[in-house]
Amino acid sequence: MNPRVVLTIAIALIVAGAASLMFARHQTNEASVVSTANNTNRAVNTNSGLVPRTLPQKPAHATVPPGNDPHVISVKFMDDLDIKISPNGYPVGRTDTVLQSTEAASLMELIKKAGGKWLPASSTLEQEGKIDDLRAEAEKSGHAIADLNNYFTLIMPDREETTKWMDLLNALPEVEIATPAVLTQTAPAKK
Q1: DSSP H helical segments within 30-122, as ranges?
Q2: How far apart are CA 148 and CA 127, in angstroms?
Q3: Which pLDDT tens digit goes with each residue over 2-13?
Q4: What secondary structure, in 3-state letters, does 140-186 show?
Q5: Which of 51, 101, 119, 136 has its CA 20 to 30 A from that of 66?
Q6: The model's pTM
């Protein structure tokens, strides 16, 4: 290979690496404060020693774009909240400190009365443990990783307007983000 091409590629990689390192240091030093839909700021994983991950911006008002299911909501609760589906069928904390606010409890009850059905991302404690192990392994990189056990699916009856429920969920500080679920497509049949 031409020495000038090699030198150009090497310089580009050095500059990209330096920029990445500066960005990671800036993220750590600034405690990764992000803004939510209700204009309050919160830091993510500031005490863990990991480079924080950036949270998605909550929309001011939810929409259901084409290609998304108008009756299914994907809900991601904040990392490290220990959430499960209760015997009554809605999310609760495994400890008494999670989803105990009046707003959260009231909303969960309203969703239940409207006929909403919650499904966890992981169906067994064994699966949750495997996901926790994978997250711990990935965080050895020094970067915070989302808690995938905190993803839940909320299925609302056809008569319900899901954008209203997404807006209400996004108003809770325990919810990282609530979005419409993407429609799945089946693979074409083999001939």
Answers
A1: 102-113
A2: 11
A3: 445 433 443 443
A4: HHCECCCCHHHEEEEECCCCCCHHHHHHHHHCCCCEEEEEEEECCCC
A5: 119
A6: 0.71
